[in-house]
């Protein structure tokens, strides 16, 4: 099975798929008499036609590695943002659109640090949450704030992969 | 100067002012083949007429105590949510609407824990961010994810208080 190489998550490397939510490199300005810095408008939240942006918490069980990437999903009608609420890294797998067929193409894997969120643009194929546990703790649960869409119409496509891949990740 | 009593933040006690964003007591259901629990739609995000919900990070310097509460503000056109990104408590001060005058009335102070966010409803008078430092560390900076409104029209009223109050808080 193909082993995916894992690259560092940066605004540049992730740009084809959406936004990296972090202070570094973002426009910012002081507010509240200089006691607070506002890093402004870090993701393109798209609730889509007749939709509204909602805020939820996903509490995810840490994955075990090697991890089999056997399916992908996408939300055609709205964006979906994940922001970690504990300072723990996690993995992000997205896919290019495949030429001419309505299915995920080439996969790309990213290591997101605990201070980095991601926002998938509408229609971007991605793997569901791949949380990473706290070091040396089994069955860690990690919380992510999620901003996505509520509204009419089917907004989740799932697609099994004809050729699953593998993520081999070790905390260092 | 009047010393504000500080109460624990709960969904019930905060209900007149907005939402407490936390898993406890929220509707939830399993997703991702049972590896993740979704605590669904935890706050009423209101971008208002012609507005859109945006996502920013506020990086706030820890306040020092006793802290003088000398002004309040409100956002008449949209809601504003704060979710702490480090597991550190913070303080929330809101006000009842005053009878017959367009200014903050009776103040209420809450201690929010590091796993609790708040969402101010449009028009609710509140004090700007009052971050609490890490124990024993001076000049701590704390990050909060903020979901508020971008759009046309003036959306911030500020009001000095004729009679300032004091928050006296000690970490225990």
Return the CATH architecture of chain A: Sandwich
Order of helices and strands of chain A: EEHEEEEEEEEEEEEE
- Largest pleated sheet of chain A: 5 strands, mixed
Most extensive protein-chain contact, per-chain counts:
A-B, 44 and 44 residues
CATH structural fold name of chain A: Jelly Rolls
Q: Can you tell me the number of structural domains of chain A?
A: 1
Average pLDDT score of chain A: 96
Instruction: Please report the total strand number of chain A as a whole number.
Output: 15
CATH superfamily of chain A: Ureidoglycolate hydrolase
Quaternary structure type: homodimer
Query: Rounded to an integer, what's the Rg of chain A over CA atoms?
Result: 17 Å
Determine and state the CATH class of chain A.
Mainly Beta
Strand % of chain A is over 45%
Query: What is the helix tally of chain A?
Result: 1
Note poorly predicted spans of chain A: none
The 3D shape of chain A can be described as: globular
Q: How does the helix and strand content of chain A classify structurally? A: mainly beta
What are the main properties of this structure?
homodimer; 172 residues; Jelly Rolls; five-stranded mixed beta sheet; five-stranded antiparallel beta sheet; 50% strand; globular
Describe what you observe in this structure.
The structure is a homodimer of 172-residue chains. With 172 residues, chain A is mostly beta strands. Chain A has one domain (2-167): Jelly Rolls. Chain A has one helix spanning 11-14; strands spanning 2-3, 6-8, 18-21, 28-31, 36-39, 52-61, 67-74, 80-84, 90-97, 104-112, 117-120, 125-126, 130-131, 141-150, 157-167. In chain A, strands 2, 9, 10, 12 and 13 form a 5-stranded mixed beta sheet that branches. A 5-stranded antiparallel beta sheet of chain A has the order 3-11-8-14-6, with no helix packed on it. Chain A has a 3-stranded mixed beta sheet with strand order 1-15-7, with no helix packed on it. In chain A, strand 4 and strand 5 (36-39) form a beta hairpin. The model of chain A has no long low-confidence stretch (mean pLDDT 96). The A-B interface holds A 21-23, 26, 31-32, 35-43, 45, 47, 52-61, 63, 81, 83-87, 115, 117, 119, 128-129, 143, 145-147, 150 and B 21-23, 26, 31-32, 35-43, 45, 47, 52-61, 63, 81, 83-87, 115, 117, 119, 128-129, 143, 145-147, 150.
């Amino acid at each position: 099975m193909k082993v995916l190489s894992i690259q560092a998550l940066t605004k540049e490397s992730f740009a084809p798929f959406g936004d990296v939510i972090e202070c570094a490199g973002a426009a910012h300005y002081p507010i509240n008499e200089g006691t607070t810095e506002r890093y402004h408008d870090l993701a393109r939240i798209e609730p889509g036609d007749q939709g509204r942006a909602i805020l939820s918490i996903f509490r995810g069980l840490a994955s075990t590695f090697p991890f089999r990437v056997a399916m992908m999903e996408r939300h055609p009608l709205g964006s979906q943002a994940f922001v970690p609420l504990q300072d723990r890294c996690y993995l992000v797998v997205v896919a290019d659109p495949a030429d001419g067929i309505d299915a995920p193409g080439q996969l790309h894997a990213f290591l997101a640090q605990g201070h980095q969120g991601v926002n998938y643009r509408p229609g971007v194929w991605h793997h569901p949450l791949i949380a990473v546990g706290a070091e040396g703790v089994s069955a860690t649960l990690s919380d992510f704030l999620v901003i996505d869409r509520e509204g009419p119409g089917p907004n989740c496509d799932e697609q099994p992969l004809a050729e699953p891949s593998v993520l081999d990740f070790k905390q260092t």
